[in-house]
Design brief:
The chain has helices at residues 37-49, 63-82, 110-115, 121-136, 182-185, 192-208, 226-235, 247-258; strands at 11-15, 19-26, 29-36, 90-94, 100-104, 139-140, 149-152, 155-158, 165-166, 298-299, 306-311, 316-321, 323-324, 343-346, 350-353, 366-368, 375-376, 398-399, 412-415, 421-422, 435-438, 445-448, 451-454, 459-460. The chain is α/β, with parallel strands linked by helices and 466 residues long. The strands form seven sheets. Strands 1-2-3-5-4 form a five-stranded antiparallel sheet.
């Protein structure tokens, strides 16, 4: 498509110095239409002075503005195609009769989460992984700030790429006060270390619960935990060569803090909150619990009587306490890092495996479930691709939908006698699953020929087993 869609009846949902954003219906979906502010004013003037007339094929947009817009779209499309899980996706774009871009709808920005005190190191770590994906494509963002991180497709994603560039192009774009790196202020060359500086500004915002960025006078380090202060100082070093040289290195030090190991850093770049300053900010999981510096037991948000603890040496996750685990949405971040847990132990006293509890724990090889557990939630082990076997205790009465879906290494499973409910597609996509058995005494289910059937309806549980 080359002609701007949905110019009539559009609803303004956002406006800044650079652009206006409208809610539109595009190809049957609710999306966002982004128009540069200068073009939007041209459009307003045209409609004001030409009431009743149709829109012309082209309005007078400056050539240099068109070139800048075309560059932005080139970068954005590259990211949408090759790092789609990390950015707000571009759906369509054009420059007739004005410059425009249609993107997925993303009304909330990260500022709200920061102001509410809900932003955490886990949000920050997730964004670091997204930034790493962007850098792998040879692209730097150069305008990282809370308002340029938006909630889309159930995840915080980077947006607004009018300042982004392919490394080496050195377009010297503008940035935002409070997030501007020293080299940007001087009009110097920018690179990945500029993004590292701006991520440091974002971390400062999370700590201070204020989305305005770093003050002109510099960060106020009093009251900040020493280990966090050291990371901040390294991110915000004036000399780009004194900063972290890769997102991966920054991620490693943040992860060390989360799991209780102080980062090993070079000497301080300035004040870092050491000495008698008392820390007023502790690492808090995205679900709201607090993580102590000693990496002790961490209570769940909804059920503080239950807790989790991760042992980095053994890569074992322990779930203990009393009552149910918290539930997690299919796109929610877990308090633990799903990519590094290899073993899990659920202690007696826990009564349920929560929805999405171990979803996408691709390294999880084994789990111990006690007889106190009565239910396994939906998506509980979804896409645990390294899980080869699991023993479900006889106390379990229900297994949620897609609970073991896409556990591609799972070879056999036994349904206990007490199970009376198995959700739709509980075992779909389990390519290696060759044997499914049902304990004697189960009056609800039977197995035959490697498939599972319900005695209640005498119908095959569709997609229960591949």
């Amino acid at each position: 498509m080359t002609y701007c869609p949905c110019l009539v009846g559009r609803e303004l949902i956002g406006a800044g110095g650079d652009c206006r954003v409208y809610r539109v219906n595009y190809m049957g979906e609710e999306c966002a239409l982004r128009i540069p502010s200068a073009d939007a004013r041209l459009l307003d003037d045209y409609f004001e002075n030409n009431k009743g007339r149709t829109l012309p094929t082209q309005l007078d947009v400056y050539d240099r503005d068109l070139k800048a817009f075309e560059y932005e779209i080139k970068v954005w499309r590259e990211l949408s195609d090759r790092a789609r899980g990390s950015v707000v996706k571009l759906l369509d774009s054009g420059n007739t009769p004005i410059r425009w871009a249609v993107m997925e709808l993303a009304e909330r920005d990260f500022s709200e989460r920061i102001r509410g005190g809900e932003a955490s190191l886990y949000d920050f770590m997730s964004l670091l992984k997204d930034l790493e994906a962007i850098h792998k494509l040879g692209i730097v963002h150069l305008d990282i700030k809370p308002s340029n991180i938006r909630w889309a497709s159930r995840k915080w994603r980077f947006s607004d790429f009018d300042n982004a560039e392919f490394e080496g192009d050195c377009r010297c774009g503008k940035s935002t006060l409070g997030f501007t790196a020293p080299e940007q202020l001087k009009g110097g060359a920018t690179d990945r270390s500029t993004d590292i500086y701006q991520m440091g500004c974002l971390l400062y915002c999370i700590i201070r619960k204020d989305p305005k960025g770093v003050p002109v006078t510099g960060p106020e380090m009093s009251g900040i935990r020493p280990d966090i202060g050291k990371v901040l100082s390294k991110c915000l070093a004036e000399d780009p060569y004194c900063r972290y040289q890769s997102v991966k290195d920054l991620f490693a030090d943040i992860m060390a803090i989360v799991y209780g190991k102080p980062p090993e850093l070079a000497p301080d770049q300035g004040g870092n909150g050491t000495g008698s300053a008392k820390a007023d900010w502790s690492v808090s999981p995205s679900r709201g619990s607090s993580v102590s510096a000693s990496a002790g037991r961490t209570p769940f948000k909804r059920n503080p009587d239950a807790y989790w603890h991760y042992d980095e040496a053994t890569k074992n996750l322990t779930i203990g306490g009393e009552g149910p685990m918290d539930d997690f949405g299919i796109f929610d971040d877990k308090p633990w890092l799903v990519g590094i847990v290899e073993r899990a132990t659920v202690l007696p006293g826990i009564t349920s495996i929560g929805n999405g509890a171990f979803q996408r724990c691709a390294s999880l090889q084994s789990i111990t479930i006690p007889s106190s557990v009565k239910s396994i939630g939906k998506y509980a082990f979804y896409s645990c691709t390294s899980l080869q076997s699991i023993t479900i205790p006889s106390s379990v009465t229900s297994i949620g939908e897609e609970a073991f879906a896409y556990c591609k290494s799972l070879q056999s499973i036994t349904i206990p006698s007490g199970v009376t409910s198995i959700g739709y597609s509980a075992f779909s996509g389990c390519d290696s699953l060759r044997q499914i058995s049902v304990d004697e005494g189960n009056s609800t289910y039977v197995s035959a020929g490697g498939c599972l059937y319900s005695n209640l309806t005498l119908t095959h549980l569709r997609d229960s087993i591949s």
